[in-house]
Design a protein that fits this description.
173 residues, alpha/beta, six-stranded mixed β-sheet
Length: 173
């Protein structure tokens, strides 16, 4: 399992809950790699393996240089491919891309990088904390470019959504 979690300004209200979720997954399963991004990518697997969730999140906050910054999803995924792809994509893992889709980068780059990510994994799951809100539709340029290459587009707004995600992931195994 590979987690790529957006911690940009627009995701700030959801980031803590999603990082607790990432900590729980990393704590239970050894074959998990976790990354966060805003304008750059940071690997946080080691920090999430710390004992208590509050310790782990404090360690994550110390190593992330661009918390609550802008969002460049395509550039972050490209950086992931360049620095970590060969190492963590072996065996075709399930990839969870967690983002609201608000992106200030190039939508063509985002589409190309998400397509590349999808080709190198077993299943690409995009989790959005905006799904389930009134009148939400994935109409951003980033979503329009990326969603054709996403296998599952699921909500990540509530604890119930995350529990349902766990059932979904278990069904994929």
């Amino acid at each position: 399992l590979v987690l790529l979690c957006d911690i940009s300004r627009s995701m700030e209200r959801y980031a803590r809950m999603l990082l607790h979720f990432a900590h729980a997954i990393t704590d239970r399963h050894r074959r998990v790699e976790a990354f966060v991004f805003s304008t750059t990518l940071t690997r946080i697997t080691r920090q999430l393996r710390m004992g208590r969730p509050d310790q782990a999140l404090a360690a994550v906050s110390r190593v992330v240089p661009d918390w609550s910054g802008g969002t460049r999803i395509g550039a972050a995924i490209k950086e992931f491919h360049q620095l970590w792809g060969r190492r963590v994509m072996n065996g075709g893992p399930v990839v969870l891309l967690i983002s609201d889709g608000w992106d200030c980068g190039d939508p063509d780059e985002l589409g190309a990088q998400v397509a590349r990510l999808q080709r190198s994994c077993h299943r690409l799951v995009w989790l959005s904390p905006l799904m389930g809100t009134a009148e939400y539709a994935p109409l951003t340029r980033g979503h329009q470019a990326a969603l054709p290459f996403v296998d599952d587009f699921l909500p990540a707004r509530t604890l119930t959504n995350l529990a349902e995600l766990a059932l979904h992931l278990n069904a994929l195994a």
